[in-house]
Structure formats: C-alpha cells, structure tokens
Amino acid sequence: MNIILLGPPGAGKGTQASRLVEDRGMVQLSTGDMLRAAVKAQTPVGLKAKAVMEAGELVSDEIVSGIIGEALDGLPAETGVIFDGYPRTEAQAHSLDAILADRGRSLDHVIELEVDEDALVERITGRFTCASCGEGYHDTFKTPKIADTCDRCGAHEFKRRPDDNEETVRTRMAEYRAKTAPILPIYEARGIVSRVDGMADMGEVTKAIAAILDGGKG
Ligand code: AMP
C-alpha cells in the first residue's frame, strides 16, 4: 500500500506517519526530513536547499523528486510507503506517478488532514523534538512528564526546527495554499482522496486514518 499524507505544515502529517510506521511496518518518506539530513550533512543537495528551507519556500521539483526516487530504490517492492510532505506541486505529482509506475507501484490513498490555519501557527511555533529519539513535544499541548527529560528515551536534549518561526510558517502556509492544495483535484479525479479532521485529538486522527486504510479506497 502506498499513500500520500497531505496537509499544511503542522497538520500532523509527521506524527501520523510515525504511527503508521509503528503500527503497520510501513516506511515514511518525508522529503522535509531527508532535506534536513542533507543540510546537516552539508551534501550538495543540502547546500542548495538550506536557504530556501529557511525562507519557507519550496526546494526545486528536480531535487525532491530525485531524492524520492532514490529512497524508493532502497526499499523492497512489498514495503508500503507513506509520502509525507511530497508531492507539493503539480510537477511533483506527475513525477511521482512516473516514479511509482517505473517501480511497479501505485497510489492507494491520498489522505488530506483538514486544519484551521490560525491554530496551526500556535501548534508549529511551540513544537520541539527529542534530539535523540525524535519524540515530538509542544510547549503548551505536550510537555515532557519530567522537565527536560524525554518521556520515551530519557534523553535531556531537545531541538526546534529553524523554520518553525511565525514568519516562515506563514510563508510555508502560503506555499501550501498556492502550490500544494491545487494538486488535490488530480487525485480526486481518481477517487482516492479521503479527508480527516486534523484538528481532532491525535488518537482520533490515527483511528480515522486506520479506518480509511482498512476500509478500501476513497
Ligand atoms: P516539511 O518538513 O515537510 O515541513 O518541509 C520543510 C521544508 O523543506 C519546506 O518548507 C520546503 O522548504 C522543503 N521541502 C520539503 N518537502 C518539499 C517538497 N516536496 N518540495 C519542495 N520543498 C520541500
């Protein structure tokens, strides 16, 4: 099974993707995570992407489609994939079709997380993760049970994304509205789009996604 999680920044794509990884043994392909790793490692892709990402703008279609193709090549054919943060433009949506077809894969579901944009700014600017295991936290909604200690692995270091500030978040949302939301009709025409209330409790969102994946298409 191959699925796309679609929604503006902060909609909960990453959180839900990690749950699908844990619950179903699927693999999460997050272009954002792969790009952040490239920036950290200072690879040629990372060097090109750094400033664009810091501004909240979109990295070129060639770069992201290239890294998605490479990532898929490293996976067994039967492994289900969750595309998280990709595709984000019409060109990427068409590239993904070609990339999947070349590898004998197809898309089963596109799940859109519907959210209220103003609430998202608060969600995003307050979020941070464990520097060691990646567990997600929030200044208001989910603080560690013991101060400065990760609930999951006990580490004491946390990190925040440099693009999680209000100005950049607004740009990222504008990019989503202008370039990403318009790709939905491509998938609607195929009858594979489902919508989930992304403002609901995280556990409810997980259940709603499970019902879609277990209940057939659309
Ligand atoms: P994300 O972690 O998905 O919010 O992505 C963080 C940043 O990485 C975005 O604001 C973009 O600058 C870049 N990025 C991630 N995925 C893509 C993509 N599919 N196309 C273009 N840029 C991307």
Task: Characterise the protein shown here.
It is a single chain. The chain has a five-stranded parallel beta sheet with strand order 2-3-1-4-8. Helices cover 47% and strands 15% of the residues. By secondary structure, it is of the alpha/beta class. Helix 1 packs across helix 9 (202-214) and helix 4 packs parallel to helix 5. A hairpin with a 5-residue loop joins strand 5 (127-130) and strand 6. Adenosine monophosphate binds next to helix 2 and helix 3. Adenosine monophosphate binds at residues 9, 31-32, 35, 52-53, 56-59, 64, 85-86, 88, 92, 163, 172.
Average pLDDT over all residues: 94
Helical proportion? 40-55%
Largest sheet: 5 strands, parallel
Q: What Rg do the Cα atoms give?
A: 17 Å
Oligomerization category of the chains in this entry: single chain
Helix-strand string: EHEHHHEHEHEEEHHEH
Ions and ligands = adenosine monophosphate
How widely separated are the two ends?
Answer: 14 Å
Continuous helix count: 9
Gross morphology is globular
The order of strands across the largest sheet is: 2-3-1-4-8
Briefly note the structural class of the backbone: alpha/beta
In total, how many beta strands?
8
In short:
With about 220 residues, the chain is α/β, with parallel strands linked by helices.
Topology:
Blueprint: E1 2-6, H1 13-24, E2 27-30, H2 31-41, H3 44-55, H4 61-73, E3 81-84, H5 90-102, E4 109-114, H6 117-125, E5 127-130, E6 136-138, E7 158-159, H7 166-180, H8 184-188, E8 193-197, H9 202-214
Parallel strand pairs: 1-3, 1-4, 2-3, 4-8
Antiparallel strand pairs: 5-6, 5-7
Helix pairs in contact: 1-9, 2-3, 4-5, 6-7
This protein binds adenosine monophosphate.
Adenosine monophosphate is lined by residues 9, 31-32, 35, 52-53, 56-59, 64, 85-86, 88, 92, 163, 172.
